[in-house]
Amino acid sequence: MDNSKKGKCPVMHGANTDTNSSVMSWWPNALNLDILHQHDTKTNPLGESFNYREEFKKLNLEAVKNDLKKLMTDSQEWWPADWGHYGGLMIRMTWHSAGTYRTADGRGGSNTGNQRFAPLNSWPDNVNLDKARRLLWPIKQKYGNKLSWADLIILAGNMAYESMGFKTFGFGGGREDIWHPEKDIYWGAEKDWLGKDRYSNKSNEETLENPLAAVQMGLIYVNPEGVDGNPDPLKTAQAMRVTFKRMAMNDEETVALTAGGHTVGKTHGNGDASVLGENPEGAPIEQQGFGWHNPKGKGNAENTVSSGLEGAWTTTPNKWNNSYFYLLFTYDWEIRKSPAGAKQWEPINIKEEDKPFDAHVPGVRRNPMMTDADMALKIDPEYRKISERFYKDPEYFAKVFAKAWFKLTHRDLGPKSRYLGADVPNEDLIWQDPIPTVNYTLSESEIEELKVKLLNCDLTPAELINTAWDSARTFRGSDFRGGANGARIRLAPQKDWEGNEPKRLEKVLRKLTEIQTGLSKKVSIADLIVLGGSAAIEKAAEKASVKIKVPFAAGRGDATDEMTDAESFSVLEPLHDGYRNWQKKDYAVKSEEMLLDRTQLMGLTAPEMTVLIGGMRVLGTNHGGTKHGVFTEREGVLTNDFFINLTDMSFVWEPVSDNLYNIRERKTGKVKWTATRVDLVFGSNSILRAYAEVYAQNDNKEKFVNDFVKAWVKVMNADRFDIKK
């Protein structure tokens, strides 16, 4: 076609497609607040009034399960099922949705249905999972708003196993879908798919960069061909330990998940991977969201290319049994290449009857295969002990796998109180961070009496506020762990964390326990911690001539050591807290960037972050009592002085060190205050300054107090799923 005859472009060329054309690309070092808008409600087509938990309660779960089981054997011409059963494909989809979870920051996992969007929908490890989700569409369409994609993806894996003869441990619903890519989750710095630049020491798997769990960009866990594509089961075992530990799994769970996941289904590599088309995000519009178009042969069925490895792990890949371990231990295995050129292990001199039939060509048997991770279960001494026990005791293997699969698919759903549906197991599991329920209520008069006791004890307002904050700030909206409920700040390891100021904490807890002991109605320490902070804030607002009541909802329980997996809580330890102007040591990442990360995990917005910082500074809540950022002559009074003085042009700001600044009076040159980067960013960043100016206005003193209290209560109640709709 003659381009000269085409009409001129009616919009700026590339403005809506070039991801590098942002106006902010001119200033690559500017603080990017996008992480705080990650789950912007404006993208949600269901509206702010939509309540998924209430909709799910209307769902006929048994009908959904039956429809899913029927789907498993309803092979479609456009993507034929292996052996007439979609079980293996669905399980891989579920595995790869849940398997992105990492303990360090609780991000990833299945909780948001994020596999529908980039980058996950186009990861090399997720080749052809777009077909699995498209197969599920008629079911999603049928049940509509009562069933999220996130829940459906997990339930499909469960029903795949059950339709192949395995009894799962259970299912809990309640995962809410997101509606755009989680662009600000850090998946690694590499710019190339399958790049590997995430180890400070490439010979030591333990040096994998935090918070990452996968060994390469675009993989879910380890490379199936071996570390760096070189088969070496012992080395792969080391990588597996690091990766699965960061997914909250121990050795036994790792072996169970690997073996149980590979008991059914197959890998696909019967063709040339280099001819595959673009991934879903890059595919042409006529592909309608499908990626990796294969122009060779049928393009699917026996010509399918996904991982590049080719073959089934077991003799009966559409049935649950113990044949995985039978083949693994019965035969010797050697390295061969798949038709796609991938390195895989195949058995030597295998009996014909032990070979699986071809998934699509009738009457033809094929060699089974194993990945390097599978061989690690045989070669690594510790993995082998576990594998041999599973081989000898199939019932035990099934039991361990059932619980490990449940953990894998529910780890990021949060405490059991968030689970919905009739299939939620009765058993309380330690990794669910159980908290005892309380059987008391508090009237308004009882709450007021408690406030008086708390304010009249030998604790300062700052001590009460800091203890409440430190207890609640551990909450992570990524996997719903942490928070004030349970008062685990009393227990190891939290009571000894440097960020919690152990000596001050011990003093406060001792006094709160004394108050609790003297009450006629027992109230949990968790409630007293939160109420103490609320009472102190009310008093500080009163001193600022603003009368306000901080909303308080009783009902928190006190967890015990027996209910607490202390080791698993180590990842929740704060290494920095911009709200209390503290960081454990100097880090390569700037303190204001760490503040944004913590703020997003707590589920706060940029305005909420701003008002909380300003309030915490004037309340004198800095870690260790430092005065950095305390821009007020009335410390302990809930005023907007932080913002007034931050925006006052009668001062100049000079750096003293990388994270310390003097604030001098222009006229006298006298140092009036000191500040950190976290303080000054609210004056330097144009967006944050806009918020700061709102709170610095003379007519917004009461608004500041009201907004501070609202944001404070949001933090205190972040983990109160029992009072949320």
Structure description:
The protein has helices spanning 52-57, 61-72, 87-98, 129-143, 149-163, 233-245, 251-262, 323-330, 372-379, 381-392, 394-410, 444-455, 461-472, 502-517, 525-543, 591-601, 606-618, 641-646, 677-684, 686-696, 701-716; strands at 266-267, 311-312, 333-337, 343-347, 576-577, 582-583, 651-657, 660-665, 671-675. The protein is built from 21 helices and 9 strands. The protein is mainly alpha-helical. The protein has a 3-stranded antiparallel β-sheet. Strands 1-2 form a two-stranded antiparallel sheet. The protein is globular. The longest helix has 19 residues, at 525-543. The mean pLDDT is 95.
Major sheet: arrangement of strands: 7-8-9
By DSSP, the count of extended strands is 9
Strand fraction equals under 5%
Poorly predicted runs: none
The helicity comes to 25-40%
What Rg do the Cα atoms give? 28 Å
Indicate the mean pLDDT. Answer: 95
| Class per helix and strand makeup | mainly alpha
Major sheet characteristics: 3 strands, antiparallel
Distance between the termini: 58 Å
H and E string: HHHHHHHEEHEEHHHHHHHEEHHHEEEHHH
- Put simply, the count of helices is 21
Write down the overall geometry: globular
